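Recap for those who missed Tuesday's class. We walked through two folding examples back to back. For each one, the amino acid string is listed first and its predicted structure tokens come directly after. Nothing is annotated here on purpose, so try labeling regions yourself before you check the end of the notes.
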Amino acid sequence: MPLRGNFQAVVIGSIGLIWISLCVLPGTSKLAVAQTPQPPTSERAVVTGAVDPNRTSTSDGEQKAERQLPGYILGAVKDRTGTAVAAQLQLTRQDQSQPPKLLTADSGQFFYTDVPPGPFQLTIVAEGFETQRVSGVLHPGEAYVVPEIRLALAVVVTEVQVQAKLTPVELAQDQIKEQEKQRILGFVPNFYVSYDREALPLNPRQKFRLAWKTTTDPFTFVGVAALAGVAQATNAYPGYGQGWDAYAKRFGASYADAITGTFVGSAILPSLLKQDPRYFYKGTGSIGSRLAYALASPMFCKGDNMRWQPNYSNVAGAFASAGISYAYYPNSDRNGAALVFQNSLIRLGEMAFEGVLQEFVIRRLTPRLRNRSSDRR
């Protein structure tokens, strides 16, 4: 029976081990776990990552980055007919944080990249078109499509200065205005001399104007007063007598001679006979030829056809003026035709002598004018 006893002992021992493991060991394990200390709730949250104190700051940075995200601006430039226009576009931002950007759109299309968000303005310039400006607001990361830009043709203002061609009469009038500025030593009238040998002829109105200008010039009265004084001192025309009354008569007679001689010989007859009353300065050639030219000036003149001819106006004017003077000279000094002939010759002699002075002396004493382009020495 020893095997049976041993078997029973093994069986009983095995049952005992099983019971211990089921009853005793499980209870011992539960007590060990219960006695293990547990961490606080807050530490458990840190470990598990349930609450992150840096989460808020990271969110603000992301939002700021989103607000600064650049965008795009694109569009097209066309004319009123829809045809693409090559234009220059200038992009400016209101905050001026960046320099203006310039873009040339040859095909009419334009595309800006990396544009900071915010208000902007586009200036479109194209040759032959009016400058146009477009404003807008670009949002972060946005592709802003500018409404189609239609340029209007520029209004071209052309200033045309039309200078009408002056007529011969107007050109002659300009020449007269220059002649009226000619004064010997700056104050003695020298109106009846032309230093332009190609000067245009005068019409009747201009001839009378020149005569009026000469006879009403203040220095004419000074010259007449001097002649009357010489006549008074030499007792010319003794029928006038002496004294202030006689001087006044001599003054009136001398001034009447100047008026009749100028108007008859330089305005009335030249207008009727179509001749030019002016002396045309020669200034070239030998002294002899110039002297002969000056001495012959009372007998020859230019016609209104600009050809040389006998000076009928001057000769007839000298005799006409002398004949008129016969009416106001003293009766005692009137000796018929002799007085008229004498005064006529004196008048013609004065003109010849004046021509010599004009040719060799007076020109040097007359200040030159700027526009005497044809004046020849």
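Example two. Treat it independently of the first, because the proteins are unrelated.
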Amino acid sequence: MSDHSSTSGRALDNPHSRTVFFSFCYDEDKRRADVICELWQAHHPRGVSRFVDRRISEQAKALGEEEVKRAIGEGVDQTTVTCVLVGAHSWQDRWVRYEIARSVERGNGLFAVRINGIADPQTHQRTVAGWNPLAYLGVGKIAGGDYLMFENINGQWIRYQDHALSLAKPAYLPAMSPGYVQPLSVGLFEYDYVTQNGAENLGRWIEQAAAKAGK
């Protein structure tokens, strides 16, 4: 797990006033995420209106993990769709997982976009393709009918301790029986920003994710 120097997401509005939370591994992928936001601004000059403020998350980190969770929650709560930017180690990142879990709790649309093919503007390096973080978090139905978040650790599904509260089953997941865990990746889209022309298609992907979540 990488150490975050801030919360790793940012919120922005699309031309249809759809507010989106971008989740990514901050230490490794911040500059690649910046490339996406800059290209978005070039295509939609009035699109970017708000960000999850870095100063807030820096302060939250200094105050401890509960404050980091609070800052992430406040950021996600502004949004209706969450885009998970997938780099080499996003799937291992604690706070990426928490941002996803809070997005599920809120009922956000969710989708993943691979960004390993974007050259880092500073180092000019691309990175290896990592696993999709949405495959490592799931929703499970327990005895009694409640739904909880689970995470995959070493091939085993265990209850997700950073978000232990029950939640509503997301609209994009099928019905399930007690004792079954459905990985989020099964019901959600995954794209590649470079090979699938994310600069042109990101807005469409956002709307597709919103539709799957009933937003």
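Answers for example two:
Residues 1-6, 47-56 have pLDDT under 50 and may be disordered.
DSSP finds six helices and nine strands in the chain.
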